[in-house]
User: What shape does this take?
Amino acid sequence: MIGDKYGKNADALLSKKLFLLDMDGTIYNENRIFDGTLDFLSQIRARMGRYLFLTNNSSKSVEDYVKKVSAMGIPAGTADFYTSGQAAVFYLQQQYPGETVYCMGTRSLVNELRRSGIRVVTEPDDSASVVLLGFDTEVTSEKIRNTCIMLGRDVAYLATNPDLVCPVSFGYIPDCGSMSIMLKNATGRTPFFIGKPEPIMIDCVLRETGFAPADAVIVGDRLYTDIAAGKNAGVDTICVLSGEASEQDIETGEIKPTWIFDDVKSIWKVLSI
Ligand SMILES: [Mg+2]
Assistant: This one.
């Protein structure tokens, strides 16, 4: 039998074929790759099956991520990522086909929406019937003002991800969830969040890869996004302690992962036996 940090039976991990990995706090911290990440990833490809990176961060496109992880020595192509921006494209196409979207997000997110054929505006526009808020690392007071103008109209309101903060080298910066709180204070409106913990990203990935929920496992460091998304999608979860969640958070919180490991290196060690 193999076990997690607390000796809980983890034999089911040996038959997993799809590893859905969070990135920040799980395989690296901003630009510093964690010890054991490369071993863990090559083990998955050699013995288990496939890995795919799931990220709530909508400020970068998949191409940006391929560049970023390739620079760390991680083997990955565009098909190995799924971002909340991609899930937003899917959701908009399903729920609001043909509608014009006002987007407060990075140029990268706007381009991703446009490439998929969605009509996007970034200035107040009467033809827009949906507002999409992303993690906007290029935000300006003018963009905030424009978004408040749009939210005062009769529009649907979506946001890519509910994360309150994004980890950076010196600590944290406000993420999409915090920006949505700022906008709520001004407009009274709360968005529907597309990324984790909603199961939309996981459902999309399972459908595209053809794996069943039982074949997959989520590995992440946040209880209220990564682990909750796994629960909502009916997929087993591993919480690693290399990022946000602490042992105490898991103990006292309501969202419990299937397994707990210190970091991806410990998962690799256990699966190596
Ligand atoms: Mg994370």
Observations:
- Residues 28 and 34 are 5 Å apart (CA to CA).
- Residues 22, 24-26, 220-222, 243 surround magnesium ion (CB under 6 Å).
- The chain has two domains: 11-56+197-272, 90-193.
